[in-house]
Amino acid sequence: MTSAHTDPSPVTVRVPAKVNLELLVGPARDDGFHTLSTVYQAVNLHDDVTVALDDEWNCTVTGPYVDVVPTDSTNLALRAARLLADETGVDTPVHVSIAKSIPVAGGMAGGSADAAATLVACDRLWALGLSTEELEEYAAELGSDVPFLIRGGTAVGSGRGERLAPVLARGSYHWVFAISDIGLSTPAVYAECDRLRGEASVPDPTPNSELMVALRSGDPHTLAPQLTNDLQEAAISLRPELGEVLASGMEFGALGGVVSGSGPTVAFLVEDVESAIDLTVALTATGAAREVRKAIGPVHGAHVIPARVD
Ligand code: C5P
């Protein structure tokens, strides 16, 4: 137990990115969010978030995205720390340090991942002893996909994406992500989806049972044709070159391809690690994406790791 006179050591949490294997968008709700049915999978592109006691609430970011992540009070990780402090009566500020590797505004929940990691890290730092369910409830206040980044694995999301149910998924899947140099705004992509739909009435979405069967099979060939995203058309409408990226990936041997979340990252499912390397090389050579990265899913959600040595 921590003595009253000894500050707790900083806590580092590793958190994955996500890809949506299925993203079915229903009608807009009165609160502006859309009813969703989605299947999330956590993949091993990670951010590491460290929280340490400090004299004031503040945040720093390191890594390739340092210029595009805000470090003021709008930073979602900092907001997560302050929310948890307010809700639990903690009055000891923290410094949140984010070693960022997940693409920013890429449809892979990078900001949400940092918020999820911060909740898990502050729970440990402040010795709150909250359950995963309690942390997921706070997470839902910060964003629709924050609870999933705490849970990880493969899960169905309903409501606005924050209500989770586990999915039986066998095996590991190999992914290749084509990452754009300029992000897309999630609200803008949802708004474009509404615009394209016009007055058409949209039913409440339900999960596709064939996707569940495919996940139980563990076979990427069975899963690939089930990948689907109702936001894809809207993302391509705002960023037409994404259509070309998708076509290139399929031409170079991907089993399936889909825009990840609200984009603009494009996710390709491949057969095995060799195919992932081949596709990464081929897509990199086309220059169609700023960066191409391999990943494996599913992986664990946000979890404490031994402290970083900088
Ligand atoms: O929940 P999150 O903060 O990630 O949502 C960002 C934005 O994405 C929302 O403000 C809303 O415009 C849109 N969104 C939506 N329906 C959802 C999730 C997000 O319209 N289910």
List keywords for this structure.
10 helices; single chain; binds cytidine-5'-monophosphate; 310 residues; alpha+beta; 8-stranded mixed sheet
Characterization of this structure:
By secondary structure, the chain is α+β, with helices and mostly antiparallel strands. Helix content is about 35%, strand content about 30%. The protein is built from ten helices and twelve strands. It has helices at about 75-90, 110-125, 130-140, 145-150, 185-195, 210-215, 220-225, 230-240, 240-250, 275-285, and strands at about 10-30, 35-55, 60, 95-100, 155-160, 165, 175-180, 230, 255-260, 265-270, 290-295, 305. The strands form two sheets. Strands 1, 2, 3, 4, 5, 6, 8 and 12 form an eight-stranded mixed β-sheet that branches. Helix 1 (about 75-90) runs parallel beside helix 2 and helix 2 crosses helix 3. It is globular. The mean pLDDT is about 95. The structure holds cytidine-5'-monophosphate.
